[in-house]
Specification:
Elements lengths: L10 E5 L2 H12 L2 E4 L10 E5 L4 E6 L12 E4 L6 H8 L9 E2 L4 E6 L5 E5 L7
Parallel strand pairs: 1-4, 5-8
Antiparallel strand pairs: 2-3, 3-4, 6-7, 7-8
């Protein structure tokens, strides 16, 4: 028997500045604060933000570095045709010269305030 995973439940992230990160994800995706502070016994400022499908658990670690084993986080964006204008409106730099055309989808790549690279994709899982 194998466990049948249906989706990513949440991503737990270290961020350089909690308030700046909350604002970035709020302004880009409309995420709301789901929980003000972590309910466990960690003394690190934290918030859980997201929507009905996605949760990000953010922990403020001012000297954190995003370098490591994760290349990027991917978000499927329902209104993909509005991605570029929204990023331009917010002053978010689009990497790799704009839209990347995959076989069954399109994506753009950006960086959040803590240095995490995000892929914003037209088709969930690239259509795989």
């Amino acid at each position: 028997m194998v466990l049948k995973a249906r989706m990513i439940d949440h991503v737990n992230m270290k961020v350089k500045n909690l308030d700046e990160s909350v604002e970035f994800y709020k302004n880009l995706f409309g995420f709301v604060i789901k929980q003000e502070e972590n309910q466990n016994k960690i003394d690190t400022p934290s918030k859980i933000i997201g929507n009905d499908s996605i949760k990000l658990c953010l922990y403020e670690i001012p000297n954190m570095s995003p370098e490591g084993g994760i290349a990027h986080f991917g978000f499927n964006v329902e209104n993909f045709d509005e991605v570029i204008s929204k990023c331009e409106e917010l002053g978010v730099e689009i990497l790799y010269d704009g839209v990347i055309n995959w076989e069954k989808s399109k994506s753009i790549y950006i960086v959040d305030p803590s240095g995490y690279e995000l892929e914003l994709g037209e088709v969930s899982g690239g259509g795989l």
